[in-house]
Amino acid sequence: MLLGRSGSGKTTLLKLVNRLLPPTSGKILVKGVPNGELDIIRLRRSIGYVIQDGGLFPHFTVERNIGLVPRIEGWPQDRISLRVQELLQMVGMDTRTASRYPHQLSGGQRQRVGVARALAADPEMLLMDEPFGALDPLTRNDLQGEFLSLQQQLAKTVVFVTHDLREAVRLGSRIAFLDAGRLVTVLPPTEFLQCTDPLVSAYVRAFGDAVVSNPNRGTT
Amino acid sequence: MNVVQFILRNHAQVLELTLEHLRLVGFATLFAVLIGIPLGILIAHRPRLSKPVLASANIIQTIPSLALFGFLLPVPWLGARSDRLAILALTLYAFLPVIRNTYTGIRGVDPAVIEAGQGMGLTKGQLLFQVELPLAVSVIVSGVRVAIVMSVGLATIAAAIGAGGLGEFIFRGLAMVDNTVILAGAVPAALLALMADFGLGRLERHLQPR
Predict the structure, then answer these.
(1) Cα B189 to Cα A139, A209, A216, distances in angstroms
(2) Which residues of A, range 154-213, sit inside 8 Å of B by Cβ?
(3) Is the pLDDT confidence value at A209 over 70?
(4) Which residues, other chains included, contact A92 with Cβ-Cβ below 8 Å and sequence gap of 6+?
(5) What is the mean pLDDT of residues A122-141?
(6) pTM score
(7) Which of B71, B98, B127, B188 is least enclosed by beta carbons within 10 angstroms?
């Protein structure tokens, strides 16, 4: 969980991982290897990427959106179709939506498809940039719950950007707090809430009593 | 004698000049598309080139057409065949709408969608052909449509340098002070422009991304 206020560098840090941005200095290790030494296309295809509102291709159906990476990776069509069906079920969607276009879906559905698309080629790692930020509170709550159960099944390494402390505590196993481009601390949720660092405690206090402390014990 | 009678009586010549006209417009549009679309894609990806390229296309557009035809006459290989020259001049005029619309269309693709594509590991070519061009295609077609309609009108002036086309009737009519002959060139030219506009307009709507 990358947590912090707007402009603290959460998204920048995330984009450094799949090299959407180049580092000005230093190295990013992905599975122990500096990512600058890996083929950029291979690197990105091995990392699922989910952004706010899904970032779906508006001219592709749900099926083509989800099946894009498998298709360019040369999977046979029947295997792609099976995978699409499987993923739609996994993210809690009716498989009949496969032929719909993104504009015919609700925000929550688009986000689900975005997650399914990121999982399509079974990457070992997921990058999620405020994936649930644009949803209404109820839908967000549903998707967070589904995310947790999905995470229990798949156990992927997930790097998740959010500014919502509640979301970070609920979904994260470790919370990295960023401020003005600097990493302040990395702590598990329970300890994070009790952290005495002035920047962290100010952030926690801003959320008031709203943070119910039932921290996750998952692997995010 | 009215225009319809005149056209019917000279239908062979009207047809011949119409085909000549279409040939001029067709080649000019083809060249403008073959050069203009790649150029538009290039400047959409290299914003630093966009200003000089678009400014040049704009400047060409401001040269009065009759003057441009005249300027090009002394050019060696080109001047020898007036139809080549006319095609070159029409191509130059058609550049602006084609380049500008390609540029605008591609720049208009939602940056979030481009970023999602990059993040998923699409190569530059895959991103261009599977994402950028399909999403920009209706804007590009709209540029081609403007270029064609404009060329149909401009091509009438090509007759001034002997390149043929429906302008022949217009210049002949002007010389004879005979409105019927002028209209025999102008009416078919206007019809061509309207038909091209209508046809490409339908194509454009058909290609509109959902």
Answers:
(1) 59, 76, 74
(2) none
(3) no
(4) A112, A146
(5) 91
(6) 0.86
(7) B71
